[in-house]
Amino acid sequence: MRKLSRSWWQGLFVIAAVTAASVLTLISLYGFRREAISPENRPIQSRIAGYVSSNACRACHPGNYASWHASFHRTMTQVATPASLPPEMDKLELAFNGREYKTERRGDKLFVRTRAEGSGNYGEPQQVVLVTGSHTLQVPWLETGEGRTLQQFPFGYIVAEKMWAPMSQTFLLPPNVKEYYYVGAWNGACMDCHVTQGQSRFVADNKWDSQVAEFGIACEACHSEGREHIERNRNPIRRFKIHLTTKSDPTVTNPASLKGPESGLACGQCHSVWAFNDMTDKIDFNRHGAAFRPGAHNLAQRFVVQPNAPDHREQKDFIHRTEPDFFHNRFWGDGMIRVTGREFNGVQGSPCFRGGEFSCISCHEMHLDSPGQADVKTWARTGQLKPKMDSDAACLQCHKDLSARLVAHTHHSADSSGSRCYNCHMPRTTFGLLHAMRSHQVSSPTVQESLAYGRPNACNLCHLDQTLAWAAQNLHAWYNQPMPELSQDDRTIAAAVQWILKGDAGQRVLIAWGMGWESAQKTAGRDWLYPYLIYTMTDTYAAVRFDAWKSLQTLPGFSDFRFNFTAPESSLSESAKRAYEKWLREVRKVNAVYRSETAIDSDGRFQQDVFQRLRSERDEKPIFLAE
Amino acid sequence: MRRPSKRALPVTQRVDRNLRFGWWSLLVFLSLGGVLETLHGFKIGWYVDVGNETRRLMFTLAHAHGTLLALVNIVVGLTVRILDRFALRSSVSFALIWAAILLPGGFFLGGIVIYDGDPGLGVWLVPVGAALLFYSITRIAIDLSRRK
Q: How far apart are CA A525 and CA A594, in angstroms?
């Protein structure tokens, strides 16, 4: 056989190398193409006119991109991956409401199988496809086999507790309500605010073909769509002209440069209770997404629902007729918002808002713009506040004169929690995600708000051991408020005791949380709180039990007390008994003195006559806080 | 043959100028590298924060271009000395030196004031420097090719 020359070998080598490179390229292209095909079992990100996604913003705005990326807005909806799902979700075996759930992982995908409790085999696996929520509560969503329609995994992951709980027990819901989200709820409701420019796209029956510009709340949610902005700013001369002159660009909206109402509405497009103007607008919103763009002075197809405002009477009457509990589930009787996540209702109802400058960004910032800002993680975890906006500085921005006469105004010592603006004017009277939050409707405390609407007033939320009469007398003496007519109980029994024993679930949960508030404990004492919190751990509402337990853990001797707030009733009583025994024998101070207003005997037991009477008067009307 | 202008320096002096400039420039831009390492080492936010990504890029480009162009000046100087019948044009010597000033200088100035993803106005010096560099390298390549 003829020996091949050196040049032959070189030629063969080149051909082999080119062939190998081509094969590798084809394999890569095949993998890339396969990844690029959109899944059909969940909502997808697609090209919605004018929207370009945060990836396009990153190159020119790296700092703002980074702060947004660290924020919880980004993770409000994520595609389910091992990284985005709660830890160890692939090893769950849970049961609730007669059904058992088991999870399993296959590669990077997670599946859930279910069966009737005690029955044989588990059913077909359903893939976990999306996860909503992030820092407080995470909610996984399952494929349904009906296009992009989603079904909720009926358990939510409470991040701080590292525990799973039935979703219906993570909201303030009547105990008989077992399922909170219907099939298709994500498509029909959640995606209105948990994504950027979502289009629900109803198909038929309960089938949806939902698409979004971007999962999570991204740049274009607040700055409006970016395609034109990007295309026009490819011209460096235009960019430098803007840098060196006006610094504003008409092709994009910057909520920080808007007047108060318009700026607030950019946040309020999600952070408010809103409703559709009519069915036509609802269908349009469903098909094409929100017509509102940041900078506009109304929500276009929708309106912010303020129960007592004169606008949209016809629409509000319609809501009254078709959903009678709509207002009660969201607002206090005077129209003040009582659920979290809807802060713009409060901001809009504040007297400060009438000035035209006050808005969400008076205290918050969506990027780390201010000098002296905390590190990005702290900022994200503390409500994205501007520096010092968790102090009186927030209010003193405008009310400058008050800093010089602080004590004269508050009638509390300067370093007292009673001299902190927030504590009196933004008390924790809204509830959601298992905790009480500050009202964003700036107001002054009155006893009348408690008498007329049942809303705990700021004075008694701190002075838990004082009566309504005590608060009324001080408000009369200090601020010349009229003295209301008060019952005998209001004169002799602490307001907090009344609310936690005979109040409705909405009042009980605020007091259960409030008894764990350090400022209130310092003011009202801690010793008498134990029996009330322990008793409240057997409340019929799971959210009330949860807050009672967490508040009990703030008291000496109970920091490591374990309790399953989702357990059956018998187990709850057992835990409460265990806690009470522990308090009585190990923790209680023998010489503790209890004020008569607390309705606790000198031996640390409830004054039975008062306790039984208040308990029998409890307001048992169902409370359903629609967060 | 092209006649040298009366004002032009003799070839050896021109070459010496590029060599001297090259070594001093190398010192300056290597020192800048040291400064940048220090900023990194102490995690100075003005340089390393993600919001200052553009500044970091500009300074890095200034360091890299400054160092490389200093070496180009040295290499050109040595090339002229090693090769017979190869003279460095006065315009090329001038262009090389100014390219080595304007290109990295533009990047550096562009990094001092930044506008998010855009560098400061100083960056407009970069294309001028780039044009001078392009001219000088092209001219050297042509002159070397024509050398007998």
A: 9
Q: Rounded CA gap, A374 and B10, in Å? A: 62
B51 with A244: Cβ contact below 8 A: no
Rounded Cα–Cα distance for residues A183 and A150 (Å): 6
Q: Examine the pLDDT at A529 and tell me if it is beyond 80.
A: yes
Q: What region, left, alpha or beta, does residue A434 occupy, with left being phi > 0 and alpha being psi -120 to 50 degrees?
A: left
Tell me which chain A residues have a C-beta less than 8 angstroms from the C-beta of B115. 239, 243
Distances in Å between the Cα of B145 and the Cα atoms of A405, B69, B134, B139 are 86, 22, 17, 10
Give the separation between CA B18 and CA B80, rounded to whole angstroms: 11
Report the amino acid identity of residue A343: E
Angle between helices B53-82 and B125-146 (to 10 degrees): 20
Q: Read off the pLDDT of residues A73-129 as tens digits, 9 standing for 90 and up.
A: 999 999 999 999 999 999 999 999 999 999 999 999 999 999 999 888 999 999 999
Our CA angle for B58, B61, B62, nearest 5°, is: 85
DSSP code of residue A386:
P
Which ranges in A216-312 belong to alpha helices (H)? 219-223, 227-232, 236-244, 260-268, 279-288
With CA atoms as reference, the chain A residue closest to B122 would be A240
Cα distance between the two ends of chain A = 85
> Which residue has 């909502």 as its token pair?
A43
Are the C-beta atoms of residues B55 and B44 closer than 8 Å to each other? no
The whole-angstrom separation of Cα A129 and Cα A114 is 16
A356: number of Cβ within 10 Å: 10
Rounded to the nearest 5°, which phi and psi values hold at A288? -115, -5
Q: What tokens were used for A368? A: 């780390």
The Cα of A79 is separated from the nearest Cα of chain B by a number of Å equal to: 25
d(CA A78, CA A96): 25
CB-count exposure of residue A24 (10 Å: 0-12, 13-18, 19+)? exposed
Check residue B12 and give its pLDDT.
79
Q: pTM for the full model?
A: 0.87
Q: What is the Cα–Cα distance from A466 to A475, expressed in whole angstroms? A: 13
Residues 6+ apart with CB under 8 A from A193: A217, A269, A270
Instruction: Let me know: does A342 contact A272? Beta carbons within 8 Å.
Output: yes
In 3D, which of B123, B15, B144 has the Cα closest to residue B65?
A: B123
Tell me how many degrees the CA angle A255-A260-A262 measures, rounded to the nearest 5.
Answer: 55
Which among A63, A67, A368 has CB closest to B116?
A: A63
Query: At A85, phi and psi to the nearest 5?
Result: -80, 160
Mutate to test the interface with B, among A54, A58, A60, A69 (most CBs of B within 10 A): A60
Which residues of A lie inside 8 Å of B (Cβ-Cβ)?
A: 59-64, 66-67, 236, 239-240, 243-244, 368
What is the distance between the alpha carbons of residues B53 and A58, in angstroms, rounded to a whole number? 11
Query: What angle is formed at CA A536 by the lines to CA A532 and CA A538, rounded to 5 degrees?
Result: 140
Summarize the confidence of residues A408-433 as an average pLDDT. 97
Per-residue pLDDT of B56-71, as tens digits, reads 999 999 999 999 999 9
Residue A494, both tokens = 């602490």
**Do A484 and A451 meet the contact criterion of CB atoms below 8 Å apart?**
yes
Backbone φ, ψ for residue A91 (5° rounding): -120, 25
Give contacts of A63 with chain B, Cβ < 8 Å. Answer: 49-53, 116
Cα dihedral A224, A230, A231, A235, rounded to 10, equals: 140
Of A62, A67, A244, the CB nearest to B117: A62
φ, ψ dihedrals at A157, nearest 5°: -100, 115
Asked if A62 lies within 8 A of B51 by C-beta distance, the reply is yes
Cβ contact A66–B50 (<8 Å) = yes
Q: Are B81 and B73 in contact (CB under 8 A)?
A: no
Q: What is the biggest distance separating any 2 CA atoms in chain B, rounded to whole angstroms?
A: 58
